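Most newcomers find our protein records easier to grasp once they have seen one. A learned vocabulary of local backbone shapes supplies the integers on the structure line. Here is such a record, shown just as it appears in the course material:
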Amino acid sequence: MAEQAYSVLYYYMECNRCGNALTGRQTKFCSEKCRVRSNVSNWRRRLKQKSVHYKGGACERCGYYKCIDALCFHHLHGKDFGISSGGHTRSWDKVKKELDKCILLCANCHAEVHSGVTQSAE
């Protein structure tokens, strides 16, 4: 009788957030901390997409629209909070209220407004 060679397959799975090895029954994340951080990052990414769409999807000065990461919200008047600052997630209603005080600018136009080279389109 011929000997049969058995191959054992080992699946090495990594955490979706940090890349650490998963053990036991873990399927996506190595810890609760990684799961929460991933969920918060996803929420903020979706919130920015929704916010950019709400404000028209392009820079109000030059019309730039290609990269969502290059678009910023410039407060015209007093601000209650920075839309993406402070490490807090906020409801869409609160964000929408704050967005009504802003204009959408690309990074270049935003820098020009802050340096005083141009005036914001109020």
